[in-house]
Amino acid sequence: xxxxxxxxxxxxxxxxxxxxxxxxxxxxxxxxxxxxxxxxxxxxxxxxxxxxxxxxxxxxxxxxxxxxxxxxxxxxxxxxxxxxxxxxxxxxxxxxxxxxxxxxxxxxxxxxxxxxxxxxxxxxxxxxxxxxxxxxxxxxxxxxxxxxxxxxxxxxxxxxxxxxxxxxxxxxxxxxxxxxxxxxxxxxxxxxxxxxxxxxxxxxxxxxxxxxxxxxxxxxxxxxxxxxxxxxxxxxxxxxxxxxxxxxxxxxxxxxxxxxxxxxxxxxxxxxxxxxxxxxxxxxxxxxxxxxxxxxxxxxxxxxxxxxxxxxxxxxxxxxxxxxxxxxxxxxxxxxxxxxxxxxxxxxxxxxxxxxxxxxxxxxxxxxxxxxxxxxxxxxxxxxxxxxxxxxxxxxxxxxxxxxxxxxxxxxxxxxxxxxxxxxxxxxxxxxxxxxxxxxxxxxxxxxxxxxxxxxxxxxxxxxxxxxxxxxxxxxxxxx
Amino acid sequence: xxxxxxxxxxxxxxxxxxxxxxxxxxxxxxxxxxxxxxxxxxxxxxxxxxxxxxxxxxxxxxxxxxxxxxxxxxxxxxxxxxxxxxxxxxxxxxxxxxxxxxxxxxxxxxxxxxxxxxxxxxxxxxxxxxxxxxxxxxxxxxxxxxxxxxxxxxxxxxxxxxxxxxxxxxxxxxxxxxxxxxxxxxxxxxxxxxxxxxxxxxxxxxxxxxxxxxxxxxxxxxxxxxxxxxxxxxxxxxxxxxxxxxxxxxxxxxxxxxxxxxxxxxxxxxxxxxxxxxxxxxxxxxxxxxxxxxxxxxxxxxxxxxxxxxxxxxxxxxxxxxxxxxxxxxxxxxxxxxxxxxxxxxxxxxxxxxxxxxxxxxxxxxxxxxxxxxxxxxxxxxxxxxxxxxxxxxxxxxxxxxxxxxxxxxxxxxxxxxxxxxxxxxxxxxxxxxxxxxxxxxxxxxxxxxxxxxxxxxxxxxxxxxxxxxxxxxxxxxxx
Lengths: 480, 480
What we know:
The structure is a homodimer. Chain A has 15 helices and 17 strands. The first copy, chain A, has helices at residues 23-26, 37-50, 63-70, 74-87, 138-151, 166-180, 195-208, 222-230, 247-253, 274-287, 341-355, 360-371, 374-400, 426-435, 465-479, and strands at residues 59-60, 90-93, 97-100, 124-125, 189-192, 213-218, 234-241, 244-245, 257-260, 290-294, 318-323, 335-338, 405-407, 414-418, 438-439, 441-442, 455-459. In chain A, strand 13 (405-407) and strand 14 form a beta hairpin. In chain A, helix 2 (37-50) crosses helix 4 (74-87), helix 3 packs across helix 4 and helix 13 (374-400) runs parallel beside helix 15. The radius of gyration of chain A is 24 Å and the shape is globular. At the A-B interface, helix 2, helix 5, helix 6, helix 7 and helix 8 of A face helix 2, helix 5, helix 6, helix 7 and helix 8 of B.
């Protein structure tokens, strides 16, 4: 049980990742049946490399050390190393140990909002898209798990209603009416796996009805384009003005559907004012069209009363979608889509052929969570935590980037900062940040911008106040 | 707390459904927040009627009785009745009470394998497609729930890998290799919500590659046609011979993809012999095509060693799919798809745009369930129960339908019975069975049959031995 290895003998795992120094978590093989352990270890190693969690160049521990850490025989580790060297995942040299080679990552590249695990290794990471996963309410969730399995009738474990569990749709209707001002009859709610599935459902239905193009915001989330493209729809990028989507270019584009983020535009942070809201709905009525409202972070608003959802103004012209990805965890894959009556049947049939409906136990669990007030409690808790982080970020920016203009701060989980001219052009700035180990995105990466000034999109929800302060300080240092 | 109502005052709920006499289960409103209870009750009533769970003509209890049963105020029930009468869901007459009117069911009609809740009211129900949901291992599942939430790292609650959790893919590879003889590298497994999603993924990818038609078995599951049609693919019905799919018509059809059920053909119960297996793979190699293997009930085989999956013979020509719908519960919505290397990337990208990947906690939970041997235990338990039921069914058929030929009994959850000529033509037989309150399907409902003789598809997994005996006796009585 004694270990002769010094730290440097034990391989280097990037220090900032949550699993740092925990090979057992990265390569969970001890629980596998004895006869499957070798294969399990090899698969887990391949996986860690292909996903980028073990980055190129990472040195692996000596085989006896890893064997001790994982609680398996040394021979099994040696065999795994040899196998992966043979396959090209690993490299080794006489006396030089074993390290990760150059592997093409087969996992899809992280899109702009980072709907993928964060790559390890950055010294600071302001890329938006993930909430603080440590705020996930494990105790309350575990209680709901216990309760729900005890109360489900046998027959409820059968094939689900593709629209979703009636109990959950009733709970969601109450919740969304109260919190987001939507018109939410349970009959027009479809339980989905998230905004991505909602987009794919809507895209497929619009395509089947003859649409070939949808409008998207510019700048906007590239994920919208990816999702609608997969259903056969091209996208046309439509400019914003200071208050929201500019309706003139929308009218000229000739589309009959447009995807929007009115509560907190991504990435600019604009909350659509009454004027573009009204113009958008007028347009939809005129062209017999559809506005898709992606309320991806509408749960979070810090200084004023929440802006009600656009859908509430005209539920027959707006399809509204949201999820628990920012309020609980993206890994739950649970969301909702409110559709106009004229689209409901086609959307439900698409949902049915896509997966026959959402897992029942998950739905019943979340219904219970909402009904008992646990979800409201969670939203309040996140709201408090994220407001504090936003305040810390704004203060740190004022300290380290004097003259910076911060906007989009009233809501959501990211802000926009426009820097004074002395920071030079945005390309050079982003290059220096990257070289200095700071992950940060420019608005320019999401579409059109008014000029070459540095405008950054800073996601803060996943960072502790301390890491926010340190990250801003570091950014200022490396770009200075 | 005293109730003056006789049984007939309390409304009639069909007696055979699992929720019989349990209005609380059908209309779960007591848990809803006080202010939402009225709306909850109305929505639940609408839902029960639209789904057919409350059938046309069902009498509802007097308002004071239902109020007592549900633990709500009488005024709230009266209001709900009035509202639903106004909406046309309910009818009422002076002194005659309240009953369910004629409502067009908006839930999709149950397809052949009944991927929908069973309608109540039948005296016996042999329609195949659902396992015995009371065999769901609640205690072991609850234990896995607890364990998994405790062991998940925070970062694992982020956006999932669209292919599925590595840990689950490793566990599935071991399981499927061992039990089904597939070639199951974790790298070519995609975790899906079930066979329906697997079909939609494959259909979408084949369509994007230029396919416009796929072959399906005739007779076969109508659901295959529905699912592939939703992806833009027409189907061509291909005849079987005594040993499996007939390869001659397949060659002539000009398709390059065909959907099959080789382990236990649905509905005929044929296990493909070596000849059609070999011919099918030869065909696929010749046309550079794909065989889809829907292993919907391949876990259950009673008298001989299991027939290994077709996929094991040529993993580059077969896409293999299965799920826990028959072994655990359809409501879990969890399954797997093994794809040839040349399709893997496209299938994963489709899965990503369809839902960004399967819910993480569900995946980790099932991985744990498999790793600890709980899934093998469950399969053994179901195998024992279903073998007994099959034996009971075969014996009851011998007793009540002398001269009947029973086939397809070696595997799966349904058998085929061909009756002697004295039972007349199949249409009249099915008509008499229906009129007598017995839900049963003829092979003719699934496609071509050799002659007009009565051939029935009898699903038995969801019925206790006593109900099987009683159901066969009843069927004999009503068609006699």
